[in-house]
Design a protein that fits this description.
Layout: H1 7-10, E1 15-24, E2 27-37, E3 42-46, H2 53-61, E4 68-73, E5 76-80, E6 84-85, E7 93-96, H3 108-113, H4 121-134, H5 150-162, E8 168-172, H6 180-197, E9 200-205, H7 208-214, E10 217-222, E11 225-230, H8 232-237, H9 242-247, E12 252-257, E13 262-265, E14 268-271, E15 280-285, E16 290-294, E17 306-312, E18 316-324, E19 330-338, E20 349-353, E21 358-362
Parallel strand pairs: 3-9, 3-10, 7-8, 8-9
Antiparallel strand pairs: 1-2, 1-4, 4-5, 5-6, 10-11, 12-15, 13-14, 15-21, 16-20, 17-18, 18-19
Helix pairs in contact: 5-6
Bound molecules: adenosine-5'-triphosphate (ATP).
Length: 363
């Protein structure tokens, strides 16, 4: 019998962070973090402002001296508290930040070839131009940084970080200074370049959509700790606690008591078989889990579920609704429906639940 062994089982992690703790004055900002990144894997460190993401990335980069724990690159220890600190420039990692400064006296091409001194001239130039082309900057190779917009400078900074093909890229909010349209394009270009080069990547972001767009795996942080690690699908569809659910977008929150393995809500019964009978539960329903069907009933039938308000948000419509159950329970909920769906105020409706986007937790 042969066992299947994946590449990630045999190859040393591109980055390994073990039991990392970090304190500024008396403020403990990283509290025991373990994280591995496999070769070629894109991992997003996601979390609210101040939860310690940047500090962790700076520790991996060597910009903060490690206080507690261990850091390895490619299986080799590069930082141990009080013993070993390989400086950032010797770690063979690519770094790009929200506002990465370019060398002002060098052209775009010279900025990108800067880290390629070990290559012959021609190869250096070809490599830089290839990357600048992939990031939409091929027409600016002779331009100087002060002549570029912020978004263009950011693309050059990404090309400069990627040019030496580092085994590990550390990116801290590299797209957040860009306006929405440009950000989408540069994110897309960057993702394709990272995958083509096969660089393992740790990307810090506070934007869940960005994390889902970029990541093979997401590590969601709160208050110095990783709360859940998994694929975007695992975090979105199998969140382990209410914080994880709410971090990925608005949810309808209801409460109820577990009775015969279920909690009754105004939109139907929700399975709670894993919770103790009689316990209080929190039911979280994503807006897209509410499926609405218009009913041919008089608009005055207000003991039936009905539309309170409908707004077009662009790609989706947001329906404010009043949900009624047969036993007299009532709740104001938000539903999201793809495309243009704008029923009139008072329109009676039936509501079905997509249970895959309903989550239940003990209160
Ligand atoms: N050099 C420093 N000296 C003192 N406190 C610091 C220092 N750097 C960060 N902190 C504090 O550590 C905490 C974590 O900061 P960090 O920048 O790691 O968070 P973050 O999750 O990246 O936040 P953001 O998304 O806002 O950048 C914050 O309370 C911050 O004020």
């Amino acid at each position: 019998m042969t066992a299947t062994v994946s590449l990630t089982d045999v190859a040393a992690p591109a980055l390994s962070l073990r039991d990392i703790h970090h304190t500024f004055a008396a403020n403990q900002v990283v509290k025991g973090i373990d994280l591995n990144i496999a070769p070629g894997e894109v991992v997003c460190l996601l979390g609210p402002s101040g939860c310690g993401k940047t500090t962790l990335l700076r520790i991996a980069a060597g910009l903060e001296v490690l206080q507690e724990g261990a850091v390895s690159l490619d299986g080799k220890p590069i930082a141990a508290p009080g013993k070993r600190h390989v400086p950032p420039e010797k770690r063979n990692v690519g770094l790009a930040f929200q506002d990465s400064a370019l060398f002002p006296h060098l052209s775009v091409l010279e900025n990108v070839t800067f880290g390629l001194k070990h290559l012959p001239n021609r190869e250096r130039r070809e490599r830089a131009i290839e990357l600048l082309t992939q990031l939409g900057m091929a027409n600016y190779i002779e331009t100087y940084p002060h002549m570029l917009s912020g978004g263009q400078q950011q693309r050059v900074a990404l090309a400069r970080a990627l040019a030496p093909t580092p085994k590990l890229m550390l990116l801290d909010e590299p797209f957040s200074s860009l306006d929405a349209r440009l950000r989408d394009r540069i994110r897309d270009d960057t993702l394709h370049v990272l995958k083509k080069l096969g660089s393992a990547t740790l990307l810090v972001t506070h934007d869940p959509e960005e994390a889902m767009f970029m990541a093979d795996r997401i590590a969601l942080m709160r208050d110095g700790k990783i709360i859940q690690t998994g694929t975007p699908r695992e975090l979105y569809c199998a969140p382990i606690d209410p914080f994880v659910v709410t971090f990925f977008g608005e949810v309808n929150e209801l409460r109820g008591t577990v009775h015969q393995g279920k909690v009754q809500t105004p939109v139907g019964a929700v399975d709670a078989s894993w919770l103790p009978e009689g316990s209080e539960a929190q039911v979280m329903i994503r807006p897209e889990a509410l499926r609405i069907k218009e009913r041919d009933l008089p608009f005055e039938a207000h003991n039936h579920s009905h539309v309170v308000m409908a707004k077009l948000l662009g790609r989706t419509s947001l329906i404010h609704l009043c949900a009624h159950s047969d036993d007299g329970q009532e709740a104001h909920l938000h539903a999201r429906v793809p495309g243009v769906f704008l029923p009139e105020e008072g329109q009676p409706i039936d509501i079905d639940l997509d249970h895959s986007q309903v989550f239940i937790f003990p209160r």
